[in-house]
Each structure stands twice: as C-alpha cells, then as structure tokens.
UniProtKB/TrEMBL annotation:
<dbReference type="GO" id="GO:0005524">
    <property type="term" value="F:ATP binding"/>
</dbReference>
<dbReference type="GO" id="GO:0000049">
    <property type="term" value="F:tRNA binding"/>
</dbReference>
<keyword id="KW-0030">Aminoacyl-tRNA synthetase</keyword>
<dbReference type="InterPro" id="IPR006195">
    <property type="entry name" value="aa-tRNA-synth_II"/>
</dbReference>
<keyword id="KW-0067">ATP-binding</keyword>
<dbReference type="GO" id="GO:0004826">
    <property type="term" value="F:phenylalanine-tRNA ligase activity"/>
</dbReference>
<keyword id="KW-0436">Ligase</keyword>
<protein>
    <recommendedName>
        <fullName>phenylalanine--tRNA ligase</fullName>
        <ecNumber>6.1.1.20</ecNumber>
    </recommendedName>
</protein>
<feature type="domain" description="Aminoacyl-transfer RNA synthetases class-II family profile">
    <location>
        <begin position="236"/>
        <end position="518"/>
    </location>
</feature>
<dbReference type="GO" id="GO:0006432">
    <property type="term" value="P:phenylalanyl-tRNA aminoacylation"/>
</dbReference>
<dbReference type="InterPro" id="IPR040725">
    <property type="entry name" value="PheRS_DBD3"/>
</dbReference>
<keyword id="KW-0648">Protein biosynthesis</keyword>
<dbReference type="Pfam" id="PF01409">
    <property type="entry name" value="tRNA-synt_2d"/>
</dbReference>
<dbReference type="InterPro" id="IPR002319">
    <property type="entry name" value="Phenylalanyl-tRNA_Synthase"/>
</dbReference>
<dbReference type="GO" id="GO:0009328">
    <property type="term" value="C:phenylalanine-tRNA ligase complex"/>
</dbReference>
<keyword id="KW-0547">Nucleotide-binding</keyword>
<dbReference type="GO" id="GO:0005829">
    <property type="term" value="C:cytosol"/>
</dbReference>
Length: 522
C-alpha cells in the first residue's frame, strides 16, 4: 500500500506540479480522503520516503480538526435529540398530543429530556393538555447538518462558536493534525523503483546500469556502532586477578611452554609414578618428539631417591622407579609444573650456585645466610586435561596459581592469606576442607558460598608443599612453601552468569551485552 500511495503522489505531481492539499488524497484501498490521523501518518510516511530520495519536497501545515464522538456519529446518522422528539409528535390540531411518558417509552428518558428542552427552546414544539404537539410543520436540523459537515471536512464553515457548542455537548472532539503541500524534487520521476545501492556484475553484463537510478552517498551518516575490539571476559577477569596479586606484592612467574616433561609435571612434585593422574585417560602425551631432555643429574638423583627409597625424613613410595616415565612429554596438567621450575630456581642459591640476587638474607637475627630468599609468585595460564567434556569441563582451561615461600609459614598463614585473596575477588565467605594432593600436606580444598546459587561451590585447591618436594630442590628445612590453584573459568562463569563453559571458550558463540561492560562483581 505504501508503494501505491507513493505512486499516486508522483502521478499527481506529474500532472499538477504541486499538490496543494494532501487532505484530498484518497489512500489506495481506502474510500475516505486522508483526513483521519492514521491516514495523515500514512501520507507522511510516503512523503518522507520520497523525500529521502529527493523525489519530492513538501511543506507541513498544522491544523486542528474535529471528529465526531460516538454520540455525535449517532446524531449524524439519526438526527438530533430535539429533531427526533419533534418528529414523533402530531401537528398542532391534527392528532392526540403525545405525553412525556409516551415519549420516554419510545426514546428513553435521557434523550427525551434533552430533546424536549431544546425543541421547546427552538419553538418547534408546544404544550397541549397533558402532552406535546408540533408547532412548526417543517424544521431544519442544523445540529445534524453541522455534524455531517464536520464528519466529511473535519471543520465547520459557520464558525468557532458552533464548534465550541458542539464540543460542550460532547458531540465532537478536537484533533491536532497535519496536511502537506507537495512539490517536485530534483530527482522527481514517476517511477518508484528503489534506487540501486550497489553496482553489481549482473548490472554491468546486462547493461542495466545505464538506466538504473542510484542512491546518493550520505556522507553525513554516522554508521552503525561496532562492538569490535573489546576484551574477552576471561581476559578481563584475568587482569583483575593479576592486579590483586600485584597489589599483594606478588611477581608474575614465566609459565614456559604448554609442553612439559613427566619429571617437572609430576616427579618433581612427588607424584608417584603409578598415580592415576599420569595415565593417558587423564593426561595428553606427546608422540613427537616423544622424550624430553634429562633434568640436571644431581637433582634428578635426589628426586628419584626420595620416590624409590625415601630420604629427608620420608620413607618414600618404595615402588619401582622408571626413568622413561620422567622423560615422557605431555601437555601440562597444572601450572604447578611451572611453580616447580621456579621454586627449583629459587633454591639455586641454597644449593650453593652462584646466582645474582641482591636481596638481603631472610633468616633470624644472627642466623647464617643459607642463600634462601622469600618469594611470592603467581601465574595465570592454560593447562590441559584429557577429560570427558561437558557443560562445565573442557579439555583445557586456565589455572590461576600462586606460591609463597618463607621461613616458618604455618597453615594459619595459608588460610588467612586465602581469606584476603578471595575477599579481594569479591568472595567474602570461604570454607576449607581437608583434601589430598601428592605434593602438599596438609592440603585444603577451598569452598565459597555462592549467594546466587545458594550453595557452597569449590573454588580452589591448596596446601603446603611437602618436604619430599622442597628438600631435593635444596631448600633449608625451615622453609615452608604454600601453594594454591584455581581455575580462571569458574569465577568468570559465576561473575557473568554463564552456565556453559563452551559459551566462554567456544569459537562461534558471542555473549550478548557484555562486550564493552566492565566485569560485574560476584
Ligand atoms: N595443582 C593443583 C592446585 C594446587 C597448587 C599448589 C598447591 C596445591 C594445589 C590443582 O591443579 O588443582
């Protein structure tokens, strides 16, 4: 319909050059001219669309018009109350007068009351005995005629006073409206075919480009806002966690490569060679190249000894030791492998190696410098586990890992630290549960109360590294090392209300509405 209205406007302009008053336009499919509000809107729509292509220009005129109320429509159809009362009466002297009761029976009380009063006032009817008779034998029902005029033109020639009167009688109401004068624009044509926006190969080969009209460039257009260039939620949360570590005095440790040896991922951490985590169902092994270089022989000797036969106060596992197992290459299952590298490096001075480190000794007063220097280190990086994937597990995720090395640390230090650390992440309620890790004793699982889920969820794993791990590296006996790890994905999912991890790490999905927003607090 919109198209045919545009066509109608253009065809009219083709003949007359201007359309003086759009109120005379009959919208295709409608029998009435464009005076109703809906019709005005339809006309404006068609004009704007032609204006956008410079096919027409137009001027807008504001008008107030009048429309009939439902009572007014009824009067326009059946006559005014007074006329109807008048028509029900006999001419004076030519029949029995009609009583008010009889009139009420015919028209209802309300109509009769108004009608009778006005007919009287007009001098149309008179009283005779107990009833009424016509005094004039013909009348002019001006109310009805005025309403019919308003119905068709929206106004009344005879003037504002009558309009005000009809408004007071609630037979009409005022409407604000618009009408338009329309002129030809620079691109005037009688064809409403949409101008082309692209020059296509088809148009070139068929020659249609010669006769096509083209849409003008709009250099003023602002363009659609782009959502590109924003940070992934995991990166945002990673940055936040990194800042928490940094403000707590931690240094970020290098995490090396994803490929690690069995020695650093497991053996150095005192994970028994027969441990189920080392099996192919849990760990991805690399087939090419299949073997790592051997670790430093002195350290290797101590690690294999503490496993096989014990030492440093431990009885060890007393199980066969396989050199092959230590050289297997795999995708690291935890960043604790990187922590092991760093701790081994940190202990270098304690092993008597010549390292550059100008930090002061950290012993008790009078204690001989054994080379130990305290450290607080963290890393946030990717790890891999050969797991069955589901809504909350993927074969890879990011691990947030931290270690604190100092003399005389206790479990209370670890718990206190965790409370502060998680508190800074917005997790105020934490609980600890004894757990088991081959490389820590005691070990604690960390649970946080999740107010949205209304339950405790596991958020991390921690513990104090065993002497079987620290002493072969060369750390003095009184040095304690805390460690803990958590996934980056879990807090991110909780924070963003994402319940499928694939939404976070999948490749095709987008997370609506969060592209440019800061990470919400938990
Ligand atoms: N490596 C442990 C986390 C951890 C790190 C350090 C000490 C204790 C636990 C894990 O993957 O869950």
């Amino acid at each position: 319909m919109a198209e045919s209205l545009q066509q109608l406007i253009l065809d009219n302009l083709d003949v007359h050059t201007t359309i003086q008053d759009t109120r005379s336009i009959v919208i295709p499919g409608q029998s009435e001219p464009a005076v109703s509000r809906d019709a005005q809107i339809t006309v404006l729509g068609a004009l704007n669309s032609l204006l956008s292509r410079d096919m027409v220009h137009f001027d807008t005129h504001e008008i107030t018009s009048h429309v009939l109320t439902s009572e007014g429509s009824q009067v326009a159809l059946e006559g005014s109350h007074e006329a109807r009362v008048w028509s029900a009466l006999p001419t004076k002297g030519q029949g029995a007068p009609v009583t008010p009761a009889q009139l009420e029976k015919q028209f209802g009380g309300e109509l009769v009351q108004v009608g009778q009063r006005r007919a009287f006032k007009n001098g149309w009817i008179g009283k005779e005995g107990a009833g009424f008779v016509q005094i004039l034998s013909t009348i002019e029902d001006t109310t009805r005629m005025d309403l019919l005029e308003i119905q068709s033109s929206g106004t009344l020639k005879s003037g504002e006073r009558t309009l005000a009167d009809l408004r007071k009688r609630k037979l009409i109401v005022q409407r604000k409206g618009q009408w338009f004068t329309v002129h030809k624009g620079p691109n005037f044509s009688t064809s409403t075919a949409k101008p082309e926006t692209d020059l296509t190969v088809d148009m070139l080969t068929s020659g249609a480009w010669k006769t096509s009209t083209y849409k003008k460039y709009n250099f003023e257009a602002e363009g659609a806002p782009t959502t590109g260039g924003s940070l992934h939620p995991l990166l945002k949360v990673r940055e936040e966690i990194r800042n928490i570590f940094l403000e707590m005095g931690f240094a970020e440790m290098p995490t090396g490569s994803f490929v690690e040896s069995g020695f650093w991922c497991f053996d150095a951490l005192f994970v028994p060679q027969q441990h189920p985590a080392r099996e192919v169902q849990d760990t991805f092994y690399i087939s090419d190249p299949p073997r790592s270089l051997d670790p430093e022989p002195e350290y290797y000797k101590k690690v294999s000894m503490v496993h096989e036969r014990g030492g440093f106060g431990s009885t060890g596992y007393r199980a066969p030791w396989s050199h092959e197992e230590t050289t297997k290459l795999l995708l690291r299952t935890h960043t604790t492998a990187s922590s092991a590298h760093m701790l081994y490096k940190l202990a270098a001075r304690c092993r008597g190696e010549d390292v550059e480190d100008d930090r002061p000794a950290a012993g008790k007063e009078g204690q001989k410098d054994d080379g130990f220097r305290p450290a607080k280190l963290f890393s946030i990086d990717r790890v891999f586990r050969n797991e069955t994937t589901d809504a909350t597990h993927l074969a890879e995720f990011h691990q947030v890992e931290g270690v604190v090395a100092d003399r005389n640390l206790t479990l209370a230090d670890l718990i206190g630290f965790m409370k502060v650390f998680f508190g800074k992440m917005g997790i105020k309620q934490v609980r600890f549960k004894p757990a088991y890790n081959p490389y820590t004793e005691p070990s604690l699982e960390i649970f946080a109360f999740h107010p949205m889920l209304d339950r405790w969820v596991e958020v991390g794993n921690s513990g104090m590294f065993r002497p079987e791990m620290l002493e072969p590296m060369g750390f003095p006996k009184d040095v304690r090392v805390h460690g803990w790890g958590l996934s980056l994905e879990r807090p991110t999912m909780i924070r963003y209300g994402i319940n499928n991890i694939r939404t976070l790490l999948g490749h095709k999905t987008s997370i609506e509405g969060i592209e440019n927003s800061p990470a919400p607090m938990l």
